[in-house]
Fold each of these.
Amino acid sequence: MDKNGDMKITKEEFTGDNELFKRLDVNGDGVIARDEVLGGGKEEKKQGKEIKPGGIAPTILDVKYGSRTNQTLDLYQAKSDKPAPLVVFFHSGGFYNGDKNEVNPQGFLQSGISVAAVNYTLISEKPLPQALHDAARAIQFLRHNAGKYGIDKIRICAYGYSAGGCISVWLALHDDMVNPKSSDPVEWESSRILAAAGWDAQTALDPDTLRKWAGEAMLNPRTGLPGRFGADSLAELEGPQFSNAVRESSAVQHLDAKDSPLFLSYEHASRPVTGETPLSIVIHNPLFGVKFKEATGKAGLECHVMIQGVLQGEKAGSKYSNGEQFLKDKMAPGQ
C-alpha cells in the first residue's frame, strides 16, 4: 500500500475502508505512520485515563460487568437529554491479547450514540467460548444498568475488528441468553443486539465449515485454532470432547432468519487459500464474508459484505457505504 516508499500510508494509498483507516491512524493526522502500525493502534494513557483520538477519555473507566479479571468495560456517554442508543466495541487480538483502548468512539459520539468498549476473558485464562459468553454478559449488564448510564436498552448494536468482529457477528446470530430463573438479575436481560458490523471478522470457527469454505489450508497449524479451545491438535479439537464448545463458538452455526442484520468489511482481496498464503490473510480472509453472505442469503437474513471498499453483489449507490454508517442507520429512531 505504501506506493512511494516513504513509510507512511495516505488515504489515497490505503486499500481498506474508512473505519479501518481511522482505527490505524491513531493520532488522527490523515496518515498511517510506521510507529502507529507497530504500536498496534493502541493509544497512550495519561494520568490514569485512556486518551483517544481527538482527546476523548471515557466518561466511566473500568466498570466491572462480572467477577472475572478481564470483565471490564469503559463507557463513553453521548451528550443527550434522553436515553441514547449504544454501540458496543470488542477489541481484536485473536482472543490471545488486545485491549478495549483500541476503540475510537468519536464518530458515534458526534452522532449522539454512546459507546461501550469491552474487555473479555482471553484464552490464557479460559478458552472459547468464554470470551463470547463474556460479550453476551456485557450486553446484559449494560441493559440492566440502562437507567444508570442513560442507555436506550432497545437500540444496542456491536462492532469490532478481527476477533472483536467475530464476537459481534456471534452476538447477532446467537439465540438470546436471557435467563429469567437466574439468581443474578443481570441474566434477566436480553443478550440480543439490533445489528452488528465486523472488520476482517471470522464468521466460522468450526473445522467442517472452514474446510467447506476454503479447503484444508484454512486449518493450517499456524492459525492456532485448536489452542483457542484448549486443544493440543486439530485431531483433538475434532474429537467429542470439544464438539459442543466448537459449535457454540462458531457464529454461522447459529444462523437463522430471525437473526440481526450485519455489515462485514475485509481489507484483503479475495483469493484461494493455500499453504503459502500469509497468515494474516488466512485468518482475515474475505471468504469469511463471501461464503457467509451466501449462507445468509439462503436464510433470508440481511448481510452486506465489502471487500477492499467494494460492496459484493449490490448495485452501485447502495444505501450503505461503510459499517459505521450501517450501524448508525440501524440505531436511528423508528428503525
Note: Residues 34-48 have pLDDT under 50 and may be disordered.
Amino acid sequence: HEALEADTVPEDRSLEQLEDYYLRRAEGRIRFLQSCGDFELDFPTSNLASLPELIQREEIEINGRRYRNPLAILADIRDSSRLSDILRPRIENFCAHGDMTFLNMVFDTKAKTYKLIDNRGYIGRWDALYDFGKLKFTLSGFGQVMLGRFSLSENKKDSFRLELQGSDVLQKLNTSFLEDISRNENFKELVVEEPYWRERVMFAEAIHYLSDIPHRLLLDQAPKNAVAVFLLGTERLNDCYRVFEDEQG
C-alpha cells in the first residue's frame, strides 16, 4: 500500500515527461523503420516492398478500417495544449518495474504469489500509469505477438489483415481491465490526482506497441513481428485519438 503513494508532478516537468516517456520515444522507434530497408519481409504482401515504405503512408487499412499514420497523430498531440494537458503525467512514485508485462511475471507455486522478474532496477521517480499501460498492452495483443500466436498479411494496397489467436479468458481480461483496476481501493487512492487516468492508460498502451518496433526487429529478427506491433499501436493510438475528438465534439 505504501508503495502506491504518489507525489504530484509540477506542470512544466509533467509536460517534459510526456515528451520523454511517450511522444519522442514513440517517434524515434517508428522512424527506426526508415533504416531497415534491408530486412526481407517474412509475411505475404501485395504492394509493400520494404519496411521504410510502411511509415510513408498517410493512411493504413487494418482489418477493413482506415487509420492515420501514427506520426501524424503524435504531432497533433504535441501541438494541442488540450491533449497535452490530458496526457501529461500528474503523479509519480517509485518505479514499480518499468517493463511490467505479464511475460515478466512468474507464479510461485509454494507461496501462491506472483513475482516480478527482469525489472529495470532503480531509476528514480516514475510515471505510475506507465506500468499499467504495460499490463494492458500485454493483454491486448503483445503477448500473442511474442508467442507467435497471430497471422499477418497485406492483401491489397495499404490493407493489412492482422488476426490474434488468444483465449476467451485473455480477451475478457483485456476488455474488463480498466473497470477491474478502477474497483481496486489502492488504485483509486493512487489516481486521485489523475482525472484522465483511463485516457492515459489507453495512450500508454498504444505508445508501448509503437516503441517495441526496434526490439522485434533486432531481437526477433522478424519484420512480421515488428509490423504487427506497429499496426497494433497504430490502431490503439487512432482509437485513443478518436475518443478525444468525440469528447471535444
Note: Residues 23 and 74 are 6 Å apart (CA to CA).
Amino acid sequence: MESVGTEALFNLSIRHNPIVEGIRTADYNYRSADTNLFAETDNKQSEESADNTVLLGKQQHWGLHPKTTDEAQVQTTLLNEAVLCRQTVANGSGNVVSMAPMKVFQTDTAFPEAPDGWLVLGMEHSGSRDSAYSHTFTAIPAQHTFRPERTTPRPHIAGTLPARVTAAENCTYAYIDDMGRYRVKLPFDLDEWSPGGESRPVRLAKPYAGPEYGIHFPLHEGTEVMLSFVQGNPDRPYISGVMHDSVHPDHIPADWNTRNVIRTWANNKLRMEDQKGQEHIKLATDYQKSQLNLGHIVDSNRNKRGENGEGFELRTDGWGAVRAGKGILVSAQNQDANGKVLDMDDAIAQIEQALSLAKSLNKAAQTANNHHTDEETQRGRLKDALKDLKEAGLIQTAPAGIATATEQSQLHTANENIHLVSGSHTDITAGQSLTAHAAQGLNLFAQSSSIKMQANQGKVEVQAQNDELQLNALKDATLTSSAGKITIAAKEEILITCKGAYIKLSNGEVEIGSPKVVRVRAPLVVNGPQGVYEMFNNENIKGELNLEYIDVYGNVPDGEPISLLSKQGEKHAISLDQSGKGKLENLNFNILTLTQPQREDK
C-alpha cells in the first residue's frame, strides 16, 4: 500500500501465538501454615480460545511468596494477563506522525481480533533527506491489558552468610518472639539500630519439630549463626546453623573427644561418655546440685569416685521424692538385663516361707489356748495385692540384708496390721525405755523355750486393773524376795490350799482347815486386837473408795477415826458409821496406807 502526501499505514500483519490453558500458582507461608495459597486461571472458555487457538497445557509457578489467598489470586491474574496480551500480535509500518507507544489506533476495516482497535507497544522511526519519514510498530488488541515481560532477574543469594544473634536491652535470656524467631545482625550492616531491631524476626531451623513438641535450645545474644535463604531470596532468610568461634569456644575441648555433651547456658547438662571402660551418662543441674549418674561415676577431673563408684547415683542437696502410682519394687537381687521388670520371685518365695513359719507357730499357740497372729490376712494381701504388684504396694528385697538408720526417730505405721517374721532371732534393744501399748490384748507365746523378764534396778509391776490375774505353772512355782518382804493382800479373801488343807483369810478372820493334822512348831502367843497397816495400790485410778471395818471380835468401832495416807503425803480422814462403813468420793488412787490407832484389849 502506498501513500503519497497522506498519513497512512503501509502494511499490517497479524500473528497468532499458542497460549497455555491457564496459570497455577502455589506457595507456603509459615506464619499462617493452614492458609491455602493455591490459585489458578482457566483460558479454555475465554473468547480468545473459541477460534481453535492452540492451548499448550497449564503453566505452574511456585514461590512467588504471597501472604494471603487474595494475593495469590492477584499474582495468578497478572501472569495470565501477560500470556493473553501476547496471544495476538500485529506488526506493521506507516507514516502516521501521531502514532506513539501506548496509543490505540483504529483501521478502516475492523479486525475480529481487535474490535476495540490496536494498542501500540513499540515503534522504530526512520527518515532522511532522501527518504520520507516512516516507522514500524508492534501492537496488540486494545481489549487486552498489557503486562510487560519480566526481564530483570530476581535477586538471589547463593550459599550462606554469617550473622550474630541480637537482643533488646537488659534481656538476660534469649530474645525470641511467640514463634521462636530471633533478631540477627549481618557483618556488612554498618548502621546503628536500637537493640533488638537489627532485623525482622528470623526463624531457626531445628533437627526435630512438631505440634507442641520438638527440640528447643534458645540462642543468646552474641551467638554466631549461619543464614540461609529460601530459594536464594534475600527477603526470606532463616538460621540454618549455629557456630562456635574464638569468642564463644566449644564446650568440649580436643582431649575430650569421647564425650557427647548437651550443656545449656545455665550449666544444665546431659553428658554421655563413650570411652571404653568408663562409659557413663550424667544428667545434672547446678540448682541444689541435683544429679543422676549412670555407669562409671567420675568427678570433675574424670577420676572414679571411690572404689565403688559404679552403677547409679541419684543425689540432690534439696528434697527428693520417688513415686509410682502402681507400685514400687526395690531389689538388690542380681538379674539379667533382659529379665522381667517386676521379677520378684525370690522376694515372694521368702515372704511365703516366713508366712509358713507364722502359720506353724499359730497352730502351736492355739493348742496352748493362746491367741494367734493374723497370718491369713497377710497371705491374702501377698496373693491379691503385692505379688506382681497387682495393687499399689512397696516391696523391698536384698539377699545380704537391709539396714535403716537415723539420728532422730523412726516411725512405722499401718492402718491395718504390722507383721514381723524372722526365720531365726528377733532382737529389740532400747537405750532407754521399751514401751508397748495395745488397745485390746497383749499376747506372748514361746513354743519350745522359756520367757524371762527382769528388772535390773527398778521394780517389776504386774496389774490386772479391771479383771483377774492368773499365774500358772505345770511344775514348781517359786515366789521369793531375796532381800525384802513379800506382801499378799486381797480385798475379799485370801485362800491358800494344797491337797485339801487350806488357810483362808476372809472378813477379818483366819481360818485354818485340814483333813489331817495341823502342826504348829513354835511357841504360840495370842494377844488382843491391835492396829493394822495395810497397803492399797491402785495407781492412776480415780473414783469412789468404800471401806467397812469390824474388829476380830465382830465389834463395830463406831466413831473411831481411820485415815488413808498417800505416798505424796496427802491425808484423807474417814469416819465410820454404826455399821463400820465409810467412803471417800473422787479420790485419786495411788499407793495408800491405812492407819488405825492401837486399841486396848476390850
Note: The first strand starts at residue 9 and ends at 16.
